[in-house]
């Protein structure tokens, strides 16, 4: 082999390796840029509570304000100007089927291996993610406001399914333990029919479809409220974390592993095989990899489940999701799927 040919081959291989390294660094920087601001807001909530600037009551009321007022205002003001004609029905159909399958596996194969008191709490926490706050924040950071139509309809549809499945597992296991059951359909209708995010999304869909004029003054006022939605929600989420919950039992760590790695890994892998790519796959990933929904705690407590385990799972997954989502997003970018 001539010296020129040898040099060309070696230099070419080095150039390819350098390009791959640069691409990997860029993908890692992108993933970190998506998750780091959200992580810092949660940490800020922890720190502000620890130094006494905010307390548990502020976190509770602030979270309610964000969920019931600010987030609905944000979704409404953004969605009334967007066309919903080209919604990815394939993504919604797959997400519904995949979530139902995951629920059946958790309910029929995993839950029987746990103690009776932990079963419904574990199952609900493992499939039910905090889509409206953390999942939406991830998606917006990654794709910008163009992702709102897809993410919002996804949230509305999946929230309904989440509530149905959560009530099914809670009633099933609490009945087996001899606890008092609540009327399933009345509780379900109340949780879905009064959910502020669902109401805001459905109202925005109707306003957009029928081209109903909305006064500019009202939109401006709602926009001011919308600006504090995600920061307030994340700040209060951090302030609500209580470290003592982490020692509840070993089940909490298995639950966190299931929620942050096993469930989203299975759902996203299936989505890839289903043909999802780009923004649609990104929404599927962020929503399925989001930490356990905070709404699972009051539901478990109201129905007599293990609310200590529920609180621990919410806290632990909220912190660890920053690591799991960063690594998962990096992998999907490396594989050029997003």
What does this structure look like?
By secondary structure, this protein is mostly helical. The chain has one domain (23-334): Na+/H+ antiporter like fold (Up-down Bundle). Helices cover 78% and strands 0% of the residues. The protein has helices at residues 3-50, 56-79, 89-110, 119-127, 131-143, 148-176, 184-193, 196-210, 216-227, 229-239, 251-274, 278-289, 296-302, 307-334. Helix 4 packs parallel to helix 11, helix 6 runs antiparallel to helix 7 (184-193) and helix 11 packs parallel to helix 14. The longest helix is centred in the N-terminal third of the chain and has 48 residues, at 3-50. The radius of gyration is 22 Å and the shape is globular.
- Unreliable parts: none
Shape: globular
Instruction: Output the CATH class name.
Output: Mainly Alpha
Mean pLDDT across all amino acids: 87
Rg over CA atoms, rounded to whole Å, is: 22 Å
Q: Enumerate how many helices there are, as a single number.
A: 14
Q: Structural class, from secondary structure content?
A: mainly alpha
Taken as a percent bin, the fraction of beta residues is: under 5%
Count of extended strands = 0
**Secondary-structure element string:** HHHHHHHHHHHHHH
Q: What's the CATH topology label?
A: Na+/H+ antiporter like fold
Number of domain units:
1
Query: Helical amount among residues, as a percent range?
Result: over 70%
Spatial gap, N to C terminus: 42 Å
CATH hierarchy: architecture: Up-down Bundle
What kind of sheet is the major sheet? none
